[in-house]
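QUALITY CONTROL LOG
STEP: pairwise intake check
CHECKER ROLE: data steward
CRITERIA: each record must contain a sequence immediately followed by its structure tokens, with no blank fields

ENTRY 1 OF 2
RESULT FIELD BELOW
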Amino acid sequence: GRGPSSFIPLGEILQEGAESSRRQLLIEAFVSAGRVDNITMVMGLHPQYLSSFWKTQYLLLRMDGPLPYHKRHYIAIMAAARHQCSYLVGLHMGEFLQVGGNPVWLQGLHCAPQKLRNLNEINKLLAHRPWLITKEHIEALLKTGENSWSLAELVQALVLLTHYHSLASFVFGCGINPEEEQDGGHGCRPPSPHGDSSPASDDSSGGKDAMREVEVLMERMKLLQESQLEEEGVTQEEMATRFELEKTESLLVAPSDLVDHSLQSSVLCFVEDPEFGYKDFTRRGEQAPPTFRAQ
């Protein structure tokens, strides 16, 4: 759990004699930003990918564009907060202040200008159910008025939102640890099913319990598959229903009302309608929802 990632050994990330291309990229990152964050350190294990990522992120955040720099970082905060990724929220709160952003905005979304707050609905949909977006959502943001968006501004804002929704998944999936100067030693992890914010590495019994839960769930899945073979009359829908019931009853599924209290102040203040989340795009036997198709 020590180092840039909770999952990748520190020695592997800082291996001696790292290839010159990777070393050069890390030097460039340091010269450009004055630091090498943990995302860059972990992604540096794949130098070609890091190179593309770095150029893209540099273009989005630092090069010419219709949005001022501080608003770009605030949009990154809004996107990351939607997935409760406090690592990225903390990172961009610092960047926001460095480029001259108003500290008052960091008290929560309610303190931001209405123009930015108007992005909340499309941010929410892009993060959790993008197939529900319609042309009316775009039109509402582009309509003339005091808080309207230009088309160029909106394009950059939407690219930033989707970029940081994706990056939040990378942070969770690679177990990215907070920087030493960031508050909170384990803010990049999703809320614990048991409401315990202590690192898993410090609680061996919790880790063993989780493994037992996985084994039990796998055994139940196996039994369900076997019963499907034995009972010829069982339909796929019935099997899916049985599996969902088993999964729901398992301790692996966290109650939705349990939220890490440390997230309340630092992340959820940038989120409106926090109960809104992912829902299956379409289920067998149900009418598919409408989709927004460009061109």
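ENTRY 2 OF 2
RESULT FIELD BELOW
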Amino acid sequence: QILDQWFESEPLKATLATDAVIGSMASPYTPGSGYVLLHHVMGELEGQRGAWGYVAGGMGALSQAIACAAASMGAHIFAEKAVCHVLLGRDGQAQGIALQDGTEVRSKLVLSNASPQITFLELVPQEQLPKDFVKQIQQADTRSPVTKINVAVDRLPNFLAAPNACNGQPLPHHQCSIHLNCEGTHLLHQAFTEASHGHPSSRPMIELCIPSVLDPGLAPRGCHVVSLFTQYTPSVLAGGQSWDEQARNAYANTVFDCIEDYAPGFKASVIGRDILTPPDLESIFGLPGGNIFHGGMSLDQLYFTRPAPFYSGYRSPIPGLYLCGSGAHPGGGVMGAAGRNAAQVALEDFRHL
């Protein structure tokens, strides 16, 4: 409805609508999806409103930059050290964390960037939490429609709509997000409907990026890495079928067939691929249900209800334990707002200890 008020071109509306459903098990026709679009364009990059950018060196470089900044201020970082549980004192106050190798790290405050589900259902004893709070965390919508496919290719994709230059140099569209299967919002709705019945979309929504065009160090000379953000794939398949190797490859083949229609020769250029379905995203990265936002971005799970009513201020039912990740207000996205806000609340409490 919002897009119809401002635009007439269906391909343009559908392309913009992808940011209204990205990461969400929702259709462009789902009430409230307009907020997800707002969420993706409300920020700015180097003074340009609504802009996004690539991180030089890949997204891991952003984590490294944050780590270096923290270390320069005296932080100690324990990488590859799984947390077993939050340490609690006799008064129920958070006193640090215990690692799975038995190491205990004592602290006056604990901030968790893990999802609300991991933080409160796995790292904290249930008897220490209000029953209503536990129930709200358990019932949160964490469905994910996302399957991420990372691809290595030996040449640039050559799209029918804008053929490559004779010299093989990247063109402007190679430096942007390329949206496929987005000629109309009805296609997005159709893809959503299939997934809502437990079937991977037969014509999935595809957002294709080629970061190596702007950051050549990501791939050998002449080769490229292609990032495919695709929807819709249900976390749980119909009939209890599992996301086994056959199902994963069948869906990836569907995605590649679609790309081939727009850029003939794409499949022949592929030299490697990595397929991450919702269960893969959950098991590898700890994302509940594979949800990249730590939980749905529907209006009933935003603002004062994120992660649960009365707990949107970053403090948790456990004194000294704070939630600072995407499961907290204002939700997902690479912006750091939740972490900054949580740090301010934690510092305020720390001054009163």
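INTAKE CHECK: passed for both entries
DESCRIPTIVE NOTE, ENTRY 2: Residues 11 and 126 are 49 Å apart (CA to CA).
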